[in-house]
Amino acid sequence: MDRLVGKGLVSRDVGTDDARVRRITLTEAGLALVDGLIEVHLDNERRLLARLTASQSAELGAALAVLAAGLETDHA
Fold first, then answer.
1. What is the pTM for the complete model shown?
2. Which of 10, 20, 29, 45 is deepest in the core (most CB within 10 A)?
3. How many angstroms separate the CA atoms of 52 and 63, rounded?
4. What are phi and psi for residue 14, nearest 5 degrees?
5. What is the CATH number of the domain that holds 37?
6. Distance between CA 63 and CA 43 in Å, rounded?
7. pLDDT for position 30
């Protein structure tokens, strides 16, 4: 966290109700960096998934839906 604060990507504030709490918030620079990285990540996912046929893509979607439902159940 210290390095991220030092680079101006996040700010760290003391909690108002409890001085032991530290609230970490993205700065404008941090948010811009994350937004850019998400675009790169999504472009890469699209490139990888473009290799699948429509049928394979549907199968993958169904399998991921099963996994997501399991995660929701595990954390409920």
1. 0.62
2. 10
3. 14
4. -80, 140
5. 1.10.10.10
6. 22
7. 97
Coil, helix or strand for 52? coil
What is the 8-class DSSP label of residue 16? S
Q: Rounded to whole angstroms, how far apart are CA atoms 76 and 61? A: 22
* Domain count for the chain: 1
Distance CA 15, CA 56 (A): 48
**Angle subtended at Cα 72 by Cα 71 and Cα 76, rounded to the nearest 5 degrees:** 120
Q: How far is CA 7 from CA 1, 16, 26, 45, 48, in A?
A: 10, 25, 11, 28, 32
- The tens digit of pLDDT for each residue in 12-66 reads 999 888 888 999 999 999 999 999 999 999 999 999 999 999 999 999 999 999 9
Cα angle 36-42-48, degrees, rounded to a multiple of 5: 140
Domain assignment of residue 63, given as a range: 2-74
